[in-house]
Amino acid sequence: MARFAIADDAFDIAPLRAGLLRAEAGAYASFEGWVRNHNDGRAATGLRYESYRALAEAEGERILDEALARFPIADAACVHRIGDLAVGDLAVWVGVSAAHRDAAFAACRWIIDEVKSRVPIWKHERYAEGDAQWLHPSSP
Amino acid sequence: MARFAIADDAFDIAPLRAGLLRAEAGAYASFEGWVRNHNDGRAATGLRYESYRALAEAEGERILDEALARFPIADAACVHRIGDLAVGDLAVWVGVSAAHRDAAFAACRWIIDEVKSRVPIWKHERYAEGDAQWLHPSSP
Amino acid sequence: MARVTVLYFASLRDAAARDSEVVDHEGDLAALYAHLRERHGFALPIERVRVAMDGAFADWRDCPRGGAEVAFIPPVSGG
Amino acid sequence: MARVTVLYFASLRDAAARDSEVVDHEGDLAALYAHLRERHGFALPIERVRVAMDGAFADWRDCPRGGAEVAFIPPVSGG
Questions:
Q1: Among B56, B118, C58, D68, whose CB has the most other CB atoms within 10 angstroms?
Q2: What is the pTM of this model?
């Protein structure tokens, strides 16, 4: 089953979290990215994400496979929204279950960092002044 | 309003998470501790947590106050179960919202570490062999 | 001489076979623990125990006032 | 000469004013980007762009076969 998914609409976290429960897992770390009302000092009113879907799904899946190989975790999953989002909407969710919290936290952080740097998804941000732009950040 | 709570019964995460949503917060990190089916190499069937409730609530609140002072976060909360728990039950939940993910992850990790080391709650673990014991770990 | 209520938790409660007891005590909290450790055979040395008084962590050198509520806090294991 | 379909995303799509186009091309993917950058006035230099072919990341020195689907990937900003 795919561990990474692109969602066209708002999605429920509860069943995704439940899918990571394991009797041998004592720790669960999760991360959520929410649409903020500001970015780089500008008031933002919402945004649109678009993806190169086939490649985004393949690259997301690769990231989760790599996380399972790199960290002593039980399972991991990630869902990224695309389409139009308003302030406060859930943009991305990552969940990781593991026997211990060290690995759960480390893998969760690693996954969101890799998703942000590798998965072909682009953010088009709308500002309170009425303009909008694609964000193409320089590599860190 | 109290940010830290002791729960006598199973509790819902959804409203706690919703209480941390902020228009200026783009990141949310959470941690959950689940009852595992093993500990220190022994098969466990369940456990009981007891607390010195008045001090646990005061100390938990202090930890969250300290987290808000130490990290650039928007809000944080923690709930710890007491009573009888079965394998897979939720024992503790921590949630943190922040403008950025660095602070959300760091504060979430710091809070669960402090809760585990400072809050007067004790775990009585039952094993598959039929025996049980209080866990009084040595300081790390 | 101060009359204090002592609360026991976890393995200390099991060893004392009670949740709490009222004790007449003279001296600091360290002396109180030493006394009760001997009475009940607590396995934990004082170095591994913390002490609270009236709902807040206290110092072992504090001397309880009459009516104080003292709690011995064995190493915690929440989470 | 290979006939390839080129996909545009985000600011590249805005600059090209289309989602995709069919191009006859000879040479590697780097040459293809240089050619199309000139045609559409893409602001992004090749150093800031990645390239994919047929749904997988590719090397700029790869030469597309006829019928290939090529995508230019500007710096991503998910999350």
A1: B56
A2: 0.94
